[in-house]
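Here is the promised in-class demo. Please do not try to memorize the tokens; focus on the logic of going from shape to residues.
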């Protein structure tokens, strides 16, 4: 019995989306950080970058996480390899859960700047941006002490 043409198309689509998920993958990138983060000198700061993919689960082989500060690479996960500059880290074990956040340890003035988290997933790509400032006035620094006894 021959399949009707429309059914055949659906079948081909179904098989394609199963076999080649990167062709039909869907990506959404967001952040839980404010667009301007005011960090406390000497403290650790988390820059949030969260992504959702469809279909699930996350396929690390088509994932490329690229964090830049003022257009220079600070951290990357690509082809199962991670690299980052000193005092900066991703959480590789969290990537499968869609968490590509960046932590900066003991932040100081050299880490100020415009951060971009760019995620490529197969053919999809999206990014979010966060500006990192350092608290400098005595009042602002007093708040840092207050939240961390
Ligand atoms: C992402 O991972 C970091 C580090 O473990 C954690 O602090 C943060 O809460 C996570 N964010 C989400 C949305 O799960």
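The designed amino acids, position by position:
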């Amino acid at each position: 019995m021959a399949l009707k043409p429309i059914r055949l198309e659906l079948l081909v689509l179904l098989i394609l989306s199963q076999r080649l998920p990167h062709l039909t993958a869907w990506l959404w990138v967001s952040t839980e950080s404010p667009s301007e983060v005011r960090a406390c000198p000497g403290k650790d700061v988390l820059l949030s970058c969260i992504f959702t993919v469809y279909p699930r689960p996350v396929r690390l082989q088509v994932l490329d996480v690229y964090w830049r500060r003022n257009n220079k690479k600070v951290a990357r996960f690509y082809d199962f390899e991670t690299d980052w500059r000193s005092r900066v880290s991703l959480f590789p074990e969290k990537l499968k859960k869609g968490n590509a956040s960046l932590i900066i340890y003991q932040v100081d003035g050299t880490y100020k700047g415009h951060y971009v988290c760019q995620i490529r997933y197969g053919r999809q790509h999206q990014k979010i941006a966060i500006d990192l400032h350092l608290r400098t006035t005595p009042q602002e620094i007093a708040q840092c002490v207050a939240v961390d006894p």
